[in-house]
Amino acid sequence: MSQTFGTACLWIAPAKEAPCHLSVLSPAERIRAEGMHPAGRPAFVTARGLLRRRLARMTGLSPEAVPLTQQPGQAPVLEGHAYGPYFSVSHTQLDGRPFAAVAVSSVCPIGIDLEDPARAVDWRRMAARRLHPGEWAAIAARDEGAARQMFFDLWCLKEALVKLMGASLLPVLSRTRIAPDRPPRLLDNPIDGRRHVLALAHVRRRRLTLGMAAARTLDWRLYGAD
């Protein structure tokens, strides 16, 4: 068993505009939520509410006072906390219902991605055009069901890497190469040259795919994942 350097805690929850989440948002987050399309608002509100409550426990601040800020087109950051706690968020739809995922760690930078592998997309075209040629060859050699799941496994892991590294999506998709072992391994990473550590889970009765990436080997603890 690989040595772990600490834990990362991850929560997955149905997304709702619940008062417990709305009550801890900053004024800027409330304005942003009000201006969002109604379909996207529950996931944003739930993710921010969960995130603020978890970070509050780690920083000793009230949830409303957690200094989360976000510039347009960029990921949220925790002002004044360059060395942790670290966090990542994701959301997706399952049977038309939104779900939000939030991960936090005090150990090292992390990234997560949550996807529904049954959603209607031209995944073969995306795999052929966007993924590393070696990954596409491995996908193409499998039967339909296994190939589709492998595509979404790799996609989730690469989205998690994008969030971890703060990189652009397309170069990570096409230039990094992942071996879909158990656990998955990052074989080639010309983006920043680091051997980031990957993990994969199939949650919500195996209907959602969860990709996790970290700068070090962590013990991922999942809550609300079924």
TrEMBL record:
User: InterPro entries in the record, alphabetically?
Assistant: 4-PPantetheinyl_Trfase_dom, 4-PPantetheinyl_Trfase_dom_sf, P-Pant_transferase_sf
Q: Name one GO molecular function term.
A: holo-[acyl-carrier-protein] synthase activity
Keyword Transferase listed? The answer is yes
* Pfam families with a match to the protein in the record: ACPS
Q: Which UniProt keywords apply?
A: Transferase
Q: Cite the 4'-phosphopantetheinyl transferase domain residue spans from the record.
A: 109-180
One cellular component (GO) term of this entry: cytosol
Q: Name one GO biological process term.
A: lysine biosynthetic process via aminoadipic acid
Q: Which family does it belong to?
A: Belongs to the P-Pant transferase superfamily. Gsp/Sfp/HetI/AcpT family.
Protein's name according to its UniProt entry: Phosphopantetheinyl transferase
